[in-house]
Structure formats: structure tokens, C-alpha cells
Amino acid sequence: MPFLLEFARDPMTVGAVAPSGPALARVATATVPRTGSPVVVELGPGTGAFTAVVQQRLDGRGRHIAVELNARFAQRLAARYPAVDVVHADAIALSEVLARRGLEYADVVVSGLPWAAFGDGRQRDALAAVVAALPPDGVFTTFAYVHARWAPPARRLLRSMRSRFDEVVVSQTVWANLPPALVYYCRRPKTDGDAGV
């Protein structure tokens, strides 16, 4: 019940009453390479629904950094996944988190952030931080609940992603998740001059 408790304490940063399920975790982390030594950043990992799958895909390779704003989630995650570099920080500070580790970019950013709970400015700043942290061939994935896909915050996020990435592909609906969700795969981040936002 820790997830529900944290949602009750701060619904604007937790954003859901239950963690994502295994089916959604597999779809959302499909861009994590199974070869090489990638730098993978997880934003808003919560209780670790995606963390376990990222760790399985990396299989001891590369670096896995999890950026979590909720201190209690961050503490639990660090204890549960000692191989993961868990950082108690805001996703907007992603560039500084990477710089403190001697990294310029992340190859993949996987987000569990509650985008629909963010206001316009916070949504824009968090997405800008993601774009700034990716190299030209970097990939960003995030998800949305199907029932909320047409709500103004979700539509605003999709417009913003399409203006900041050359390609945004939408997965098939993950019906096995509760509630059903879909994943956005965003590739080839645009430079500031290219982005239309």
C-alpha cells in the first residue's frame, strides 16, 4: 500500500493510485538496448515497476540512474535495487544530475512522470530537460492512460513531444495494465532552433 499512501499525501507528484503493471513496464522499456553500455535514465521510478525491467535488459551493463522526487520512494528504491544510482531530485534538474556524474547525455530516458498532473510550465520544463539530456540518436519513452489521452494536459504533452522530436510513435494499447495505457516512443530530439515550442 505504499503507493496509495504516497498518492494520498501528494497526488500532484505521484499521479496514480497504483504502480504500473509488468505488461506496461515491458512496452515502456523496450528501447533500452540489450547490447553495449548505454546510460539509461529513469524519471519518476516510484516503487520500481520499470526499474526491475530496465535492470533485466541491462543485465549488469551500462549505467542506470533513477531520478525520483519523492524522498520515501527514492529511499525504498535504493534499498531494493543497489545496482541502480538512485537520485532524490527533480526531473527538471536532469542535466545537473548527469553532469555531477561526469555524463553529458543519456542514451535512453524512460519516464514514469505524472505528466497529466503537471501544469503547462512544469510540463514544458520537464520535457525541455529530457530533450537537453539526449544525444541526436537518443530515445525518450513515456506513457499515458488511454482514458485520459484526450484531456487537455495529455494533448498538450503530445503536441509538445511532436514539436521537440522528429519522430513520435504511439504503441498499441496495453490492455493488461490497470488502467489501460499506451507508450510514446520519441526519437531524434530537435535542437532549440528546430523545436516549435
Explain this structure.
By secondary structure, the protein is of the alpha/beta class. It contains 8 helices and 7 strands. Strands 3-2-1-4-5-7-6 form a 7-stranded mixed beta sheet, sandwiched between helices. α7 packs parallel to α8. The longest helix has 13 residues, at 120-132. The termini are far apart.
Summed up, what is this model?
The protein has 197 residues and is α/β, with parallel strands linked by helices. The chain contains 8 helices and 7 strands.
What would the keywords be for this entry?
seven-stranded mixed β-sheet, alpha/beta, globular, 197 residues, 21% strand, single chain
Strand order of the largest sheet: 3-2-1-4-5-7-6
Q: Determine the N-to-C terminus distance.
A: 39 Å
Note the beta-strand portion: 15-25%
Order of helices and strands: HHHEHEHEHEHEHEE
Shape: globular
The total of helices stands at 8
The SS-based structural class is: alpha/beta
Helix content: 25-40%
- Give the number of DSSP strands: 7
Rg, Å, rounded = 15 Å
Sheet of most strands: 7 strands, mixed
Q: How would you state the average pLDDT, rounded?
A: 89
Instruction: Provide the low-confidence segments as ranges.
Output: 1-17
